Amino acid sequence: MKIHEYQAKEILRKYNVPVPGGEMATTLEEADTAAKALFAAGNTVVVVKAQIHAGGRGKGGGVKVAKSLDDANTASKAILGMQLITHQTGPTGQKVQRLLIEEGSLIDRELYLGLVLDRASAKVVFMASQSGGMEIEEVAHATPDLIYKEYVDPVVGLQPWQARSLAFKLGLTTAQINPAVSFMMGLYKAFIETDSTLMEINPFITTKDGKLMALDCKINFDDNAMFRHKDLKELRDLAEEDPLEVEASKFALNYIKLDGNIACMVNGAGLAMATMDIIEYAGGKAANFLDVGGGANQEQIENAFGILLSDPNVKAIFINIFGGILRVDVLATAVVAAARKLNVQLPIILRLEGTNVEEGRKILAESGLKFEVGTTMKEAADLAVKAAA
């Protein structure tokens, strides 16, 4: 689950991590009130920032610096309601429905801090780099040696000496080392206690007067842990998510929309990846990733069909099932019932293997519906590509 920058900064405040002062606004009136308050408090610069779940906002025109109230109002009018396009939103962009009106900072250096789960080591890795304020992916690709790492033992957690080591590698002054250690320890505590999967401070800045601050913050949470965090679950902004993905989550379906025209329905994430790959290999493009899970029932299959059919780009449906926990005959019965109930007119191609596969194929053959069944994944993928064309 993703949250907005202003929400992430509120969380950091609770862990005594320094962030700029600011207010969220959903209307121009609220933005004007927030800007007036910041200028009245003695700030000479105010920053107007679009709040969407994507990086690269500045390059897309979603972040503007204002040195007067008129400038701030002009920036708010330009950003609020705009369709902001960045490298992470795709060509359609994302409508800006919230702003963060924030006090400006006298930046001396822009650095980077980040925490992420490292599957290879089965540990949290704390990263730091002097190359802040830019896309960290580019830094990692071009100059990976400029990203410093500390792997955290889950038993003892982040140790002060590890934070101190990163602080020295960032080239901080002697007076900034101890505040930096406190800063990093606070970040790690926030990461663990909120069940985060990603926490990025980019940029992590030093100011002209030697202070440290999180100028921007991105936090992703583990969806599976949200039952422990009802307060965090309420931060979810459904307007920032694809409507079909939101609908799928209501029925415990794992769905991600893609830009192809062959809809995929599978049971198991690994099989889903393999299905998308073999469609590409056959010359087609997958329209989605949809995993119905190992214990899907008829209701879930029907809802899955409804979600797939809601995508206007879909020209064919490829169902690839390996029956283990989910028996093939049960799946076939559910597919037939869903196809009839929803009056599916699109070509449906299936590849079935596993428990009760012959019974499942018989159910499909005797349904009277026009199903195509491939004996192998490659054969079924070829049929799906042909049908979609």
Automatic annotation (TrEMBL):
<feature type="binding site">
    <location>
        <position position="216"/>
    </location>
    <ligand>
        <name>Mg(2+)</name>
    </ligand>
</feature>
<keyword id="KW-0436">Ligase</keyword>
<feature type="binding site">
    <location>
        <begin position="56"/>
        <end position="58"/>
    </location>
    <ligand>
        <name>ATP</name>
    </ligand>
</feature>
<dbReference type="GO" id="GO:0000287">
    <property type="term" value="F:magnesium ion binding"/>
</dbReference>
<feature type="domain" description="ATP-grasp">
    <location>
        <begin position="9"/>
        <end position="230"/>
    </location>
</feature>
<dbReference type="InterPro" id="IPR013815">
    <property type="entry name" value="ATP_grasp_subdomain_1"/>
</dbReference>
<dbReference type="GO" id="GO:0005829">
    <property type="term" value="C:cytosol"/>
</dbReference>
<dbReference type="InterPro" id="IPR005811">
    <property type="entry name" value="SUCC_ACL_C"/>
</dbReference>
<keyword id="KW-0067">ATP-binding</keyword>
<feature type="binding site">
    <location>
        <position position="110"/>
    </location>
    <ligand>
        <name>ATP</name>
    </ligand>
</feature>
<dbReference type="Pfam" id="PF00549">
    <property type="entry name" value="Ligase_CoA"/>
</dbReference>
<dbReference type="InterPro" id="IPR017866">
    <property type="entry name" value="Succ-CoA_synthase_bsu_CS"/>
</dbReference>
<dbReference type="GO" id="GO:0004775">
    <property type="term" value="F:succinate-CoA ligase (ADP-forming) activity"/>
</dbReference>
<dbReference type="GO" id="GO:0006099">
    <property type="term" value="P:tricarboxylic acid cycle"/>
</dbReference>
<protein>
    <recommendedName>
        <fullName>Succinate--CoA ligase [ADP-forming] subunit beta</fullName>
        <ecNumber>6.2.1.5</ecNumber>
    </recommendedName>
</protein>
<dbReference type="GO" id="GO:0042709">
    <property type="term" value="C:succinate-CoA ligase complex"/>
</dbReference>
<keyword id="KW-0460">Magnesium</keyword>
<keyword id="KW-0816">Tricarboxylic acid cycle</keyword>
<dbReference type="InterPro" id="IPR013650">
    <property type="entry name" value="ATP-grasp_succ-CoA_synth-type"/>
</dbReference>
<comment type="pathway">
    <text>Carbohydrate metabolism; tricarboxylic acid cycle; succinate from succinyl-CoA (ligase route): step 1/1.</text>
</comment>
<dbReference type="GO" id="GO:0005524">
    <property type="term" value="F:ATP binding"/>
</dbReference>
<feature type="binding site">
    <location>
        <position position="49"/>
    </location>
    <ligand>
        <name>ATP</name>
    </ligand>
</feature>
<dbReference type="InterPro" id="IPR005809">
    <property type="entry name" value="Succ_CoA_ligase-like_bsu"/>
</dbReference>
<comment type="similarity">
    <text>Belongs to the succinate/malate CoA ligase beta subunit family.</text>
</comment>
<feature type="binding site">
    <location>
        <position position="202"/>
    </location>
    <ligand>
        <name>Mg(2+)</name>
    </ligand>
</feature>
<feature type="binding site">
    <location>
        <begin position="324"/>
        <end position="326"/>
    </location>
    <ligand>
        <name>substrate</name>
    </ligand>
</feature>
<comment type="function">
    <text>Succinyl-CoA synthetase functions in the citric acid cycle (TCA), coupling the hydrolysis of succinyl-CoA to the synthesis of either ATP or GTP and thus represents the only step of substrate-level phosphorylation in the TCA. The beta subunit provides nucleotide specificity of the enzyme and binds the substrate succinate, while the binding sites for coenzyme A and phosphate are found in the alpha subunit.</text>
</comment>
<comment type="subunit">
    <text>Heterotetramer of two alpha and two beta subunits.</text>
</comment>
<keyword id="KW-0547">Nucleotide-binding</keyword>
<dbReference type="GO" id="GO:0006104">
    <property type="term" value="P:succinyl-CoA metabolic process"/>
</dbReference>
<feature type="binding site">
    <location>
        <position position="105"/>
    </location>
    <ligand>
        <name>ATP</name>
    </ligand>
</feature>
<dbReference type="InterPro" id="IPR011761">
    <property type="entry name" value="ATP-grasp"/>
</dbReference>
<feature type="binding site">
    <location>
        <position position="102"/>
    </location>
    <ligand>
        <name>ATP</name>
    </ligand>
</feature>
<dbReference type="InterPro" id="IPR016102">
    <property type="entry name" value="Succinyl-CoA_synth-like"/>
</dbReference>
<dbReference type="GO" id="GO:0004776">
    <property type="term" value="F:succinate-CoA ligase (GDP-forming) activity"/>
</dbReference>
<dbReference type="Pfam" id="PF08442">
    <property type="entry name" value="ATP-grasp_2"/>
</dbReference>
<feature type="binding site">
    <location>
        <position position="267"/>
    </location>
    <ligand>
        <name>substrate</name>
    </ligand>
</feature>
<keyword id="KW-0479">Metal-binding</keyword>
